[in-house]
Amino acid sequence: MTNFKLTYFDSMGRAEVIRAMFNYRDVAFEDERISHEDWLKIKETFAFKQLPMLTINGTDQLFESRAIELFIAKELGLMPTSNLDQAKVAQFILNHDSLYVHWSLLFEKDEEVKEVANKEFLKNHVLPFLFKYNECLKSNQTSYLVADTLTLADFAFYQIVFAYINTFKLILTDDLYEIKKFMSLMESDPKYQVYLKQRKITAY
User: Fold this and answer.
1) 36 within 8 A of 79, measured Cβ to Cβ
2) pTM of the model
3) What top-level branch of life does the organism fall under (predicted)?
4) Sign of CA dihedral 2, 55, 151, 195
5) Terminus-to-terminus CA distance in the chain, angstroms?
6) Are residues 15 and 6 in contact, defined by beta-carbon separation less than 8 angstroms?
7) Domain locations in the chain?
8) What would the CATH number be for the domain defined by 83-189?
9) DSSP designation for 2
10) Tens digit of pLDDT for each residue in 118-170?
11) What is the pLDDT of residue 60?
């Protein structure tokens, strides 16, 4: 039996998709959550000087959240079978990262400035991003992003949309119908429901 240890901060961030897949497949793992203060003390001892880090069987270490997600998805049978569909999964999850540069607005201390920046972010970046994915869901005609089954792409997309709703106060309108349907589909999955009800929700 493979032993997994996931090390990250006590937040959703770049570890939540990994946690979700482990829980969905009922795979035991050590969910090590460290404070930012402790991280500063031990950062230099980490090969990539960053988190998350996945430790496999106590020895092998893997960094970069997307690399970890792809590895775990393959280990847990949450990747499609064809090479093309696997590339599509990578395409979707990597595309999410193009918006992360704007998340710095969360640390703006002036609330009025923050509110304006948030509205501009939603209008100019998040909504165009979502309309693109809405069309992808529509064209795939299976309710999922890739092929006709649940994959890493769906876990990652659910989490990013959840973050925009929970943290950035996004409202899904009817012209994003495919995404609204997708979110309902994910939240109605009995196994995923169990995890969603028990997980710790954080701003980022």
Assistant:
1) no
2) 0.96
3) Eukaryota
4) positive
5) 32
6) yes
7) 4-75, 83-189
8) 1.20.1050.10
9) -
10) 999 999 999 999 999 999 999 999 999 999 999 999 999 999 999 999 999 99
11) 97
Task: Tell me the three-class secondary structure of the chain, residue by residue.
Answer: CCCEEEEEECCCHHHHHHHHHHHHCCCCCEEEEECHHHHHHHHHHCCCCCCCEEEECCCEEEECHHHHHHHHHHHCCCCCCCHHHHHHHHHHHHHHHHHHHHHHHHHCCCHHHHHHHHHHHHHHHHHHHHHHHHHHHHHHCCCCCCCCCCCHHHHHHHHHHHHHHHCCCCCCCHHHHHHHHHHHHHHCCHHHHHHHHHCCCCCC
Q: Tell me what pLDDT residue 204 has.
A: 85
The phi and psi torsions of 39 (rounded to 5 degrees) equal -60, -40
C-alpha angle with apex 72: 66 to 73, nearest 5 degrees? 85
What's the CATH number for 4-75? 3.40.30.10
4-75 with 83-189: one CATH topology?
no
pLDDT per residue as tens digits for the range 85-106: 999 999 999 999 999 989 999 9
> What is d(CA 106, CA 160) in angstroms, rounded to the nearest whole number?
15
Tokens representing 162 are 């959840």
Q: So what's the pLDDT on residue 1?
A: 81
**Percent of the chain scoring above 70 in pLDDT:** 100
Region 181-193: mean pLDDT is: 97
